[in-house]
Amino acid sequence: MYLEAADYNQINNGINFGLRVRLSDKGLLNLPQKPDILYASTPLDFFYREPKNKQKLDELSIRIKERIRKEQAKPDNSDIKKSFLSKCYIYANKLRALASKFLVYEHLPDFCNSFRLIRSLTPASPQYIEEWAKIGNSIHNKFINMNIEDGKIEKIAKSGEPHIFLLNHNNPEKDKFIYPIFNSFLNYAYTAFGKQNDCPRPNIIVSKNVLDLVGKKFRNMYKKMGLISVDASLSARNYDKNVMPIKYLIEKFIRKHCNLFIFPEGNNSIYKDKPLKDKFQPGVAKIIKNILDANNTARVVPLGLSYSPDKTNMGSVHIGDTILLRKKGNQIYYAKKGLIEQFLCNSNSKDVIGEIKRLLSLELEKSVILSKIE
Questions:
Q1: Which strand (E) or helix (H) includes residue 228?
Q2: What is the DSSP code string of 154-172?
Q3: How far apart are CA 44 and CA 355, in angstroms?
């Protein structure tokens, strides 16, 4: 039914990442030029100037948490061990909270300016999108490999339709930088088309730990920038707490008020030996099914991420073809560029979540493979 992801190792699709795009090179997009955005900077760029002490503490915290999660996933843990692991996890988070303080102290003026800026903006304002579009403009020594040459960013922005972006999650420290840069290119496209008043606003689903481990001011900034927290624990997950934020996002998406960015592996990304399809969480497929039930259509874009040891290279992003999922009566179909619409499953079948998950995990895996082609 589907082309296997492994087959994509043999595909030459004309994208070779020959162009290393600087974070500030949005002018390379095939769009009307907006000098007031292209040559303007934002204090938010201080996020891309992390001091080494912060990087080391972040890396240490992540290594500790990965070990804790693996232990928590064992089915035969005693209550004492569970309690001990939970306390260790809290202390690992405190390491990252300490790391965030290094970033603030190193760039205190930019942090204060960023805080004032974000506090003054409302997501509904055109200035909010324009500020997103400026991210990376002052970072001239960092590059990203991204297949901008095929015009997918322009097509997404021109459509004005909300999209769900799926990103693999193989490096928690680096992944957090890729999302804002891709989103900055996308929001520049919105401004170039004059859509900053009514284009979808960015929302990214993150583990509540991301917000728990930072101070109040950082937390307020992150929330204003579109971060929505959910309980993504590997053990003792409280699903009830996730109902309201997910329902809120689905309603926004249906009203065309937001794009959704999701790392569907979540905390399962620690299982490096498992294939992506086994780490892909069914909750993502449930969100899409709920959107289809209410709206009949959902557009999904896989963003494959990979990284290079080159310190000037932020990583590679392969923007996959948009997958259009459409519900007709009790049947769900999907279509991609160059392919006729194909039947996926019945919407009331027992395995509807599994079928959506299989399709999307395979498409994301293809983009991950293609992100590594150089």
A1: strand 227-230
A2: HHHHHH----EEEE--S-H
A3: 40
Whether the pLDDT of residue 217 is over 80: the answer is: no
**Gap between the Cα atoms of 261 and 156, Å rounded:** 14
Q: Check if the beta carbon of residue 300 is closer than 8 Å to that of residue 166.
A: yes
Q: Tens of pLDDT along 296-334? A: 999 999 999 999 888 888 899 999 999 999 999 999 999
pTM over the 0.90 mark:
no
Total number of domains in the chain: 1
Say yes or no to pLDDT of 194 above 90: yes
Question: Is 246 among the domain residues?
Answer: yes
Return the amino acid letter for 259. N
Q: Dump pLDDT digits (tens) for 338-358.
A: 788 999 999 999 999 999 999
Q: Is the pLDDT of residue 360 over 90?
A: yes
- Backbone dihedral region for residue 125 (phi beyond 0: left; psi -120 to 50: alpha; all else: beta): beta
pLDDT tens string 138-150 = 998 889 999 998 8
Task: Flag whether 177 is in a domain.
Answer: yes
Helix (H) or strand (E) holding 94: helix 79-106
Q: By C-alpha distance, which of 151, 225, 141, 139 is closest to 189? A: 151
Residue 42 has what pLDDT?
92
- Report whether 52 contacts 173 (CB < 8 A): no
Percent of the chain as helix, strand, coil, to the nearest 5: 50, 15, 30
3-state DSSP assignment of residue 349: coil
Neighbouring residues of 183: CB distance < 8 A, sequence distance ≥ 6 = 132, 135, 202, 261
Instruction: Over range 52-77, report the average pLDDT.
Output: 78
Integer CA distances (angstroms), 21 to 36, 65, 103, in order: 20, 33, 26
Is residue 73 one of the residues assigned to a domain?
Answer: no
Among 12, 10, 31, CA closest to 187: 31
Task: Identify the domain containing residue 254 by its residue range.
Answer: 5-9+20-49+107-371
